[in-house]
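Much of the work behind modern protein science is quiet bookkeeping, done one molecule at a time. The protein below has been through that process, and both of its lines are reproduced in full.


***
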Amino acid sequence: MKKFFLILFAIIAFFNLQGQETLKPVRLPIIDELQYVREGEGTVIVNQDSTITMLHSLRYLQNAKSPGLDGYRIRIFFELGQFARQNSEEVMYKFMEKYPGVPVYQNYQNPYWKISVGDYRTKEEALKFYHEILVEFPKAFIIPERINFPPLN
């Protein structure tokens, strides 16, 4: 019986050791792009410690998991109930008719249906638009949220 438990323990320990991985640096596209050799142009060689490469890789992966940046949106609808989805769609369409071009986000976070509008980098930007829509949407409020990157012009 002791041999059985000893073998079982050895097998479990072996599989646990196999499951652990070390962090390997990921080559970032920007580094490869900088070091790419082009005919008739200069050559760039990037020399850096592997720790820096690992930190850049971790930051790159973290940003890829949650795209966008910290900013503000205006929540114009927040409700739960049997008709909450239908009501949220009515509010969303009403807003889209009144303010075309302003991004609208419908979200269901159990048990609430939510409608948020805009992508504002600062609270002051959000406040300007908030005061514009307050008459039409009196229950509106500003929330900090991950927003989309602004369009490049």
Remarks:
- The CA atoms of residues 27 and 45 lie 14 Å apart.
- The chain has a mean pLDDT of 84.
- Residues 2-19 form the longest helix (18 residues).
- Strands lie at 69-79, 104-109, 112-120, 141-147.
